[in-house]
């Protein structure tokens, strides 16, 4: 099993990479600076471009879902870390009935601390103290919930989502960005199954590694091992097909997905052109390798035909 401390530390890395990219001008996010300190390290342009593509694509899919449901929906971000999408969307008038973020208590208590300290973060959740309950590691507001749970423990996940008063008949999107790979595949199956058994209409957006059975994958696994961080869920990252099958095997109606190489090509060209001028990149090869080892897979369950199967990146 991966050391949970090492897994939790991956969130600090992700948040610092995002802050670095935002400060370079890849995309705008006034909230990330309230959640993480400036990185001591310089990050390679390939890394920032990778984050840019991931952030843009995940937000596009999420926005399409919220628009399709007219905001009558719920968002559950599993292993959310220091994600800022709730604040970014709300400040742009994009709202869901409920936005839930779940992570290990060590991560959620740090996030709680930053939210208390960062006025703009707290005010977005509630302008009145009576509308919000904050404990050391959890927050319950009108439309925002931050809860701690181990995703490997389905009973705990169930209990914590129950505390958020979710309506299981309302369309709900589950998001996992670089999370499931740290969880044993059997436990992920239990989680994915539980969602389809309990929610009437659901969408899952999963950003994760793919094509991990080659040399590049081997090196990535070895590097993480050196940091005491193993990838017990990597078997589902063998190919795009394997990524999709894990959803169709756990009660999801269908799944689709794209490698980041193709997703990057599908992003709005004018913005990609702007971003490509931000930093000089020595070798395009490393970026191509990175893009071919990450993907986004989306899976849906849509018995009422609200159109979840038509959500994509075109
Ligand atoms: C690489 S970080 C990604 C954070 C965020 N999703 C993002 O994209 O910026 C992985 C996150 O998953 C969380 N995580 C991994 N395994 C988990 C588990 N079993 N239970 C709860 N959270 C978990 C970690 O604590 C960490 O915050």
From TrEMBL:
Protein name: Leucine carboxyl methyltransferase 1
Chain sites annotated for binding S-adenosyl-L-methionine: 54, 79, 150-151, 177
Listed EC numbers: 2.1.1.233
Broad EC category: transferase
Stretches that traverse the bilayer: none
Gene Ontology MF annotations: protein C-terminal leucine carboxyl O-methyltransferase activity
GO biological process terms held by the UniProt record: methylation; regulation of signal transduction
Keyword Transcription regulation carried by entry: no
InterPro entries the UniProt entry points to: LCMT1, Ppm1/Ppm2/Tcmp, SAM-dependent_MTases_sf
Task of the protein: Methylates the carboxyl group of the C-terminal leucine residue of protein phosphatase 2A catalytic subunits to form alpha-leucine ester residues.
Annotated organism of origin: Mytilus galloprovincialis
GO cellular component: cytosol
Keywords: Methyltransferase, S-adenosyl-L-methionine, Transferase
């Amino acid at each position: 099993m991966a050391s949970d401390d090492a897994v939790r530390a991956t969130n600090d890395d992700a948040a610092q990479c995002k802050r670095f990219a935002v400060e370079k001008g890849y995309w705008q996010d006034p909230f990330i600076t309230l959640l993480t300190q400036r990185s001591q390290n310089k990050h390679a342009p390939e890394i920032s471009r990778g984050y840019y593509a991931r952030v843009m694509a995940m937000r596009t899919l999420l926005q399409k879902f919220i628009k399709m449901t007219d905001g009558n929906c719920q968002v559950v971000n599993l292993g959310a870390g220091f994600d800022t999408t709730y604040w970014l969307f709300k400040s742009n008038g994009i709202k869901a009935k409920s936005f839930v973020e779940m992570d290990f208590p060590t991560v959620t208590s740090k996030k709680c601390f930053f939210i208390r300290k960062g006025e703009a973060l707290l005010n977005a959740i509630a302008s009145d103290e009576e509308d919000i309950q904050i404990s050391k590691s959890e927050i319950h507001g009108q439309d925002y919930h931050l809860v701690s749970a181990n995703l490997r423990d389905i009973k705990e996940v169930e209990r914590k989502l129950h505390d958020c008063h979710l309506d299981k008949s309302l369309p709900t999107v589950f998001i996992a960005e670089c999370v499931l790979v740290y969880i044993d595949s059997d436990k992920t199956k239990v989680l994915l199954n539980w969602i389809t058994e309990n929610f009437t209409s659901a969408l899952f957006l999963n950003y994760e590694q793919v094509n991990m059975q080659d040399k590049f994958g081997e090196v990535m696994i070895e590097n993480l091992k050196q940091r005491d961080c193993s990838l017990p869920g990597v078997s589902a990252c063998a190919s795009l097909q394997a990524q999709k099958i894990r959803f169709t095997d756990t009660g999801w109606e269908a799944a689709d997905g794209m490698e980041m190489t193709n997703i990057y090509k599908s992003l709005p060209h004018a913005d990609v052109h702007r971003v490509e001028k931000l930093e000089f990149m020595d070798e395009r090869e490393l970026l191509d390798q990175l893009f071919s080892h990450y993907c986004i897979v989306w899976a849906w369950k849509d018995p009422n035909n609200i159109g979840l199967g038509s959500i994509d990146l075109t």
